[in-house]
Design goal:
The chain is mainly beta. 8% of the residues lie in helices and 49% in strands.
């Protein structure tokens, strides 16, 4: 009886798989520094929702990798916009390469709610962020007609 139980468990363990998916493509890449495996187009996935939480089966979960720099610069036609320091703890500076007129910026939280509307009338504008909680914020810069640029800012 014990032999039969051990035989059945050994057979079941051989068929266990930690992650399994049906993908349209993928590859394994390696060199002397390490290796990476990726898959594209997981055909099936299942999502379960409960009391305030969600679990997604599968191996493909989106995440973002980014490098923090001291400033962000965007060139839009002849206008260069720099936002620094990023990450910040007290003040954020929006700097233009030339004098601006009729421009504004919205400071948004992670949920897209407008925290502050900033009038940009000088080439350098200082925004006080010391009263805000440590989080990720977004700055949308507008001219009189439309959005010029969007930035991600980290408040530590």
């Amino acid at each position: 009886m014990v032999f039969l139980l051990i035989f059945c468990l050994a057979g079941a363990i051989q068929n266990v798989s930690a992650q399994e998916s049906l993908n349209s493509s993928g590859a394994d890449i390696s060199n002397v520094d390490g290796s990476i495996s990726y898959s594209v187009g997981q055909a099936f996935c299942q999502e379960y929702s409960g009391a305030g939480s969600t679990i997604s089966e599968g191996v493909q979960h989106a995440f973002e990798i980014f490098i923090l720099t001291e400033s962000i610069s965007v060139k839009n036609d002849d206008l260069v916009i720099s936002i620094f320091p990023n990450p910040t703890s007290e003040y954020l500076i929006i700097e233009f390469n030339e004098a601006v007129e009729q421009m504004s910026a919205n400071l948004l939280d992670e949920n897209g709610r407008v925290i502050q509307v900033i009038s940009l009338t000088d080439s350098i504008t200082k925004i006080d962020m010391s009263g805000l909680a440590a989080a990720v914020y977004f700055i949308s810069v507008f001219d009189s007609n439309s959005s010029v640029a969007n930035y991600k800012v980290i408040k530590k």
